[in-house]
C-alpha cells in the first residue's frame, strides 16, 4: 500500500513536472507562429523566383494541358475565400498547412534531383534554389509539428496526399514541362500555407494589434 | 441562356451582315484585349479590357470566364461597378487558389471577335488601395526639428485578421527637388524623418504592398514646411566668425593708418649713401660737370701753406738725464712696460700716443717733459726720456701718459703726456732700439751713415716734430747702450723744423738751430735735407725718410710689429744690434717700405693740419 502510494506519487510528480515543462517550454506560441509565417513567406517567394527563372527562357509549355487542378494536392479541401478561411478553427488550419507541407516533401526531393540535370540555361540557379526550397520546407515542417504539439492533440490529424511520380519524364520537353507544372503546383500550395499561417498568427496575437 | 448559346445567334447575324453588306464600310470589331485584373483585398477582383477597333458600328463587349477544372462559362456579373470596359467580380464570384480563364468578346452587327484568354489566379494579382489619412507633422528634439508621418491602412484591406499583410513605404522630397528619398516603414503606420533642411518645403507620399503582390499607388502628396531653425553650435560659430571678421577689419584699418610706422618697424630703412653736395637735379639735368663741381668741397684738400700748421714745434735738446735714461734700459723697459698697460685710445685724432715716441711725457712733468720734447726723436726720444726720467719721474713709472692732443694743444713747454702703451712699448722697444737701432744704424748703417728717421705720431709729428738726425743720436746711443749706464753720452740730436707738408704728405723739414745749444753733431746736419714722410705706420708713426739720394728712413722698429720688433728686442738684450735691423736698415727703401705700417688709422688726418 505504501509502495503503491509512493509509486503513484512519483508518477504524479513526474507527470506534473512534464506538464509544467511542456506548458512552459521557452518558446512562446506567438513567436513560433511568427517564425513559421516568416518561413512560409520565404518559401513562397523562393518558389515565385524559381518560376520566373524557369519561364525566362521557355514559355510555359503545356500550360494548357496541365492544369493546377491536376496537382496531387488538389484533393485537399481548403477554404476558398476569406470568410470560409476565417471560420476554420486554428488547429484545423494548422492541420491543413501541415498536410500540404507534408505532401510536398517527396516531390521536392524529386525536383531537387531533376534540377541537377535539367536542360535549362539557368540550371545552376534553379538547382540551388530547389535545394533551398527543400531545406525550408523541412524546417517549416518541423516547426509546424512543434506548433501542433503545442496546440493540442486535435491538430495532429493529417491528410495523406501521396505523390506517385518518381521521374519527370524521359525527353527534354517533358522534363521541362513536368518540372514547370510541379513547380506551379508547389507555388500555389506554398501560398496557401503562408496564408493560413498568417491568419493563425493574427488570431493568436490578440495582444498585438499593431501586427495585424 | 447559357454562355455557350450566346455566341451562336451572334455568329449567324454577323455572317448575315457580312454577306448582306459587302461594301458598307463596316466590319466586325477588332479584337479586344484584357489589360489586367486586380484584387485590392484578396476578396474581390476586377478585370479591365481594351476594346479593339469597333468597326464603325456600335460594339458590345462581353467578358466570359471559366474556372479551371470546369467547363462552365460564366459571363461577367458586374460591368458597372468598376467603370467602363471592366468587369467586377464580387466576393461571391471570387475563388482563391483557382485559375480563372477570362476572355472578352467584342461584337457588333458585323461580327464579333474574341480576345486572348487570360489565366488569372486571384491571389497573385493583389494590389491594395493607397494608404489613407496621411498626416505629416513637425516635431522637435534636441537635434532639431524632424517630420513625423502618420497614415492609415487602406480601408478595404483586412489586415486585422491577418488575411492580408501590408508593408508600407514613404518617400520625401523638397518641393523643388527632383529626386525622392524613399523609406521602408515595414508594417508600422508611422515614420520619423530626420535630417531635413530647415526652412524648406517638403512633399510626402506613402504607398503599401501586400506580402505577395503589387505596390499600391502613391498617395496624393502632402506638403509640409520646415521651420527655420538655427542650431546652437552654428549660432555660436556665426558669432565667432563675426567677431573675428570685425577684429580683422580693425587690425587692417589700424595697419593702414599706421602704415609708415609699421613699415619702419618691419623694414627698417637702409641708410643710403649720402654724398655731401650731391644734387640729384643736376644729375637729372644731365650736366655731369655741374654735378661733379657741386661735389667739390671748397677748401679741400687743403692747399694752404703748411706753415700755419706747423707753427709750433718741439724743442728737443740733449740732456744728461736722457743719457741716464738711455742707459737705464731696465728702467726704461720697466717704465715702458708699466705704461704699456694703458690702452691706446687713438681714435683718429692722430694723437701722438702709442707708437709715437716723440713726445712721450717724462715722468717728471716739468723738466723731463721738456727733455722729452726736446728729444724729438720719435719714440725713441720719448722713450728715452721716459726711461731716463724713470728714476726721477715717477710719472713714467706710474705709466702716466697723456694723449697727444693735450700735448698738442699747448705747444712747447707744457706738459704733454701721451698715452700710448704702444708708444711706450715703442719707446720701450725703441729705447733699446734706439740704443740698438742707433748703434746699429750707426754700426750697420754707420758705414752708410745715412739713416735718419723720426718717428712721430701724426699730429705730434706735424706739430711738434722735431726732427733730428737719427744718426747722431743713434750713434750716441750706440755708444752708450752697450755699456749700459755708465756711458754718458750726450745725445746729439738734430733739430729740424718741419717746414711744410706738401701735397703728397711729405714733410719737408729743415734743420733747426737749437737755442739750447745744438749739439755740435747736430750741426753736421744743418745742411741736411728735409725729411720726407715716407709713410705713416699703423701706430701713428710717421715714417720719414731722407730726401734726395739718401735713402733715409725711420723704421718703426719699435712698434708692435713683431717682425720688426722682435729682432730688435732680442738684440737689445744681447746688446747686439740685430743684423736684421741692420738688414732692415740696409735696405731701407725697399724693406722698410714693406714693413712700414700706417700709423694709427692709416690715413692722414687732415683735421690737425687744418685746425
UniProtKB/TrEMBL annotation, chain A:
Keywords: Disulfide bond, Hormone, Secreted, Signal. GO terms for biological process: positive regulation of cell population proliferation; positive regulation of receptor signaling pathway via JAK-STAT; response to nutrient levels. Pfam families: Hormone_1. GO terms for cellular component: extracellular space. Its main location: secreted. PROSITE patterns: SOMATOTROPIN_1, SOMATOTROPIN_2. InterPro entries: 4_helix_cytokine-like_core, Somatotropin/Prolactin, Somatotropin_CS. It is found in: Secreted. GO terms for molecular function: hormone activity. Residues 1-26 form the signal peptide. The keyword Disulfide bond applies. Belongs to the somatotropin/prolactin family. This is Prolactin. It comes from Astyanax mexicanus.
UniProtKB/TrEMBL annotation, chain B:
Residues 366-428 are annotated as: Disordered. It comes from Astyanax mexicanus (Blind cave fish). GO terms for molecular function: cytokine receptor activity; metal ion binding. The keyword Membrane applies. It comes from the Eukaryota. This is Prolactin receptor. Residues 28-129, 130-229 form the Fibronectin type-III domain. It is a single-pass type I membrane protein. It is found in: Membrane. Keywords: Disulfide bond, Glycoprotein, Membrane, Metal-binding, Receptor, Repeat, Signal, Transmembrane, Transmembrane helix, Zinc. Pfam families: EpoR_lig-bind. PROSITE patterns: FN3 (PS50853), HEMATOPO_REC_L_F1 (PS01352). Its main location: membrane.
Amino acid at each position: 500500500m505504501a509502495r503503491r502510494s509512493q509509486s503513484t506519487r512519483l508518477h504524479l510528480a513526474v507527470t506534473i513536472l512534464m506538464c509544467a515543462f511542456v506548458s512552459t517550454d521557452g518558446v512562446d506560441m506567438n513567436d513560433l507562429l511568427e517564425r513559421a509565417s516568416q518561413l512560409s513567406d520565404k518559401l513562397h517567394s523562393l518558389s515565385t523566383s524559381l518560376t520566373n527563372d524557369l519561364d525566362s527562357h521557355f514559355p510555359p509549355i503545356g500550360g494548357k494541358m496541365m492544369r493546377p487542378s491536376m496537382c496531387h494536392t488538389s484533393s485537399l479541401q481548403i477554404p476558398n475565400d476569406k470568410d470560409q478561411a476565417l471560420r476554420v478553427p486554428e488547429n484545423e488550419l494548422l492541420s491543413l498547412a501541415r498536410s500540404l507541407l507534408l505532401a510536398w516533401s517527396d516531390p521536392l526531393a524529386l525536383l531537387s534531383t531533376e534540377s541537377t540535370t535539367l536542360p535549362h540555361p539557368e540550371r545552376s540557379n534553379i538547382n540551388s534554389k530547389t535545394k533551398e526550397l527543400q531545406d525550408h520546407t523541412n524546417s517549416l515542417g518541423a516547426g509546424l509539428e512543434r506548433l501542433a504539439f503545442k496546440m493540442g492533440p486535435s491538430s495532429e490529424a493529417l491528410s495523406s496526399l501521396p505523390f506517385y511520380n518518381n521521374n519527370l519524364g524521359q525527353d527534354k520537353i517533358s522534363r521541362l514541362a513536368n518540372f514547370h507544372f510541379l513547380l506551379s503546383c508547389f507555388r500555389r500550395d506554398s501560398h496557401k500555407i503562408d496564408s493560413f499561417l498568417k491568419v493563425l498568427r493574427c488570431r493568436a496575437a490578440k495582444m498585438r494589434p499593431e501586427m495585424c | 441562356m447559357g454562355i455557350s448559346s450566346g455566341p451562336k445567334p451572334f455568329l449567324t447575324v454577323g455572317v448575315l451582315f457580312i454577306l448582306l453588306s459587302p461594301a458598307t464600310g463596316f466590319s466586325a470589331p477588332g479584337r479586344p484585349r484584357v489589360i489586367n485584373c486586380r484584387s485590392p483585398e484578396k476578396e474581390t477582383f476586377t478585370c479591365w479590357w481594351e476594346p479593339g477597333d469597333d468597326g464603325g458600328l456600335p460594339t458590345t463587349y462581353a467578358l466570359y470566364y471559366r474556372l479551371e477544372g470546369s467547363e462552365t462559362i460564366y459571363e461577367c456579373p458586374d460591368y458597372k461597378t468598376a467603370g467602363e470596359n471592366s468587369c467586377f467580380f464580387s466576393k461571391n464570384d471570387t475563388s482563391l487558389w483557382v485559375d480563372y480563364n477570362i476572355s472578352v468578346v467584342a461584337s457588333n452587327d458585323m461580327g464579333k471577335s474574341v480576345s486572348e484568354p487570360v489565366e488569372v489566379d486571384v491571389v497573385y494579382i493583389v494590389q491594395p488601395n493607397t494608404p489613407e489619412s496621411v498626416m505629416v507633422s513637425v516635431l522637435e528634439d534636441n537635434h532639431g526639428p524632424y517630420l513625423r508621418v502618420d497614415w492609415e491602412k487602406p480601408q478595404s484591406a483586412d489586415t486585422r485578421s491577418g488575411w492580408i499583410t501590408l508593408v508600407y513605404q514613404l518617400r520625401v522630397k523638397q518641393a523643388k527637388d527632383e529626386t525622392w528619398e524613399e523609406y521602408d516603414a515595414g508594417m508600422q503606420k508611422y515614420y520619423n524623418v530626420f535630417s531635413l533642411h530647415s526652412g524648406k518645403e517638403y512633399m510626402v507620399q506613402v504607398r503599401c504592398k501586400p506580402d505577395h503582390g503589387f505596390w499600391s499607388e502613391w498617395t496624393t502628396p502632402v506638403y509640409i514646411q520646415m521651420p527655420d531653425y538655427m542650431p546652437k553650435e552654428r549660432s555660436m560659430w556665426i558669432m565667432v566668425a563675426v567677431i573675428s571678421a570685425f577684429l580683422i577689419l580693425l587690425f587692417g584699418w589700424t595697419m593702414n593708418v599706421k602704415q609708415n610706422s609699421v613699415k619702419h618697424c618691419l623694414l627698417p630703412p637702409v641708410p643710403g649713401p649720402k654724398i655731401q653736395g650731391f644734387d640729384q637735379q643736376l644729375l637729372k639735368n644731365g650736366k655731369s660737370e655741374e654735378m661733379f663741381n657741386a661735389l667739390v668741397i671748397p677748401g679741400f684738400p687743403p692747399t694752404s701753406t703748411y706753415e700755419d700748421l706747423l707753427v709750433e714745434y718741439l724743442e728737443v735738446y740733449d740732456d744728461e738725464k736722457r743719457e741716464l735714461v738711455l742707459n737705464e734700459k731696465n728702467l726704461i723697459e720697466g717704465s715702458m712696460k708699466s705704461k704699456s698697460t694703458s690702452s691706446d685710445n687713438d681714435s683718429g685724432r692722430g694723437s701722438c700716443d702709442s707708437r709715437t715716441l716723440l713726445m712721450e711725457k717724462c715722468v717728471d712733468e716739468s723738466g723731463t717733459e721738456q727733455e722729452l720734447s726736446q728729444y724729438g726723436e720719435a719714440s725713441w726720444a720719448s722713450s728715452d726720456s721716459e726711461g731716463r726720467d724713470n728714476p726721477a719721474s715717477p710719472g713714467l713709472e706710474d705709466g702716466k701718459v697723456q694723449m697727444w692732443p693735450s700735448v698738442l694743444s699747448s705747444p712747447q713747454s707744457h706738459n704733454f703726456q701721451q698715452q700710448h702703451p704702444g708708444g711706450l712699448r715703442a719707446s720701450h722697444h725703441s729705447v733699446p732700439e734706439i740704443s740698438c737701432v742707433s748703434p746699429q744704424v750707426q754700426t750697420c748703417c754707420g758705414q752708410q751713415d745715412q739713416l735718419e728717421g723720426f718717428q712721430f705720431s701724426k699730429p705730434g709729428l706735424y706739430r711738434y716734430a722735431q726732427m733730428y738726425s737719427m744718426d747722431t743720436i743713434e750713434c750716441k746711443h750706440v755708444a752708450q747702450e752697450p755699456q749700459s749706464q755708465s756711458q754718458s753720452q750726450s745725445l746729439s740730436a738734430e733739430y729740424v723744423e718741419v717746414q711744410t707738408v706738401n701735397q703728397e704728405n711729405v714733410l719737408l723739414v729743415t734743420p733747426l738751430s737749437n737755442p739750447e745749444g745744438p749739439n755740435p753733431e747736430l750741426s753736421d746736419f744743418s745742411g741736411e735735407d728735409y725729411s720726407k714722410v715716407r709713410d705713416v705706420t699703423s701706430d701713428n708713426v710717421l715714417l720719414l725718410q731722407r730726401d734726395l739720394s739718401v735713402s733715409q728712413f725711420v723704421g718703426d722698429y719699435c712698434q708692435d710689429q713683431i717682425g720688426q720688433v722682435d729682432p730688435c728686442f732680442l738684440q737689445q738684450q744681447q746688446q747686439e744690434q740685430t743684423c736684421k735691423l741692420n738688414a732692415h736698415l740696409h735696405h731701407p727703401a725697399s724693406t722698410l717700405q714693406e714693413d712700414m705700417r700706417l700709423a694709427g688709422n692709416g690715413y692722414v688726418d687732415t683735421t690737425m693740419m687744418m685746425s
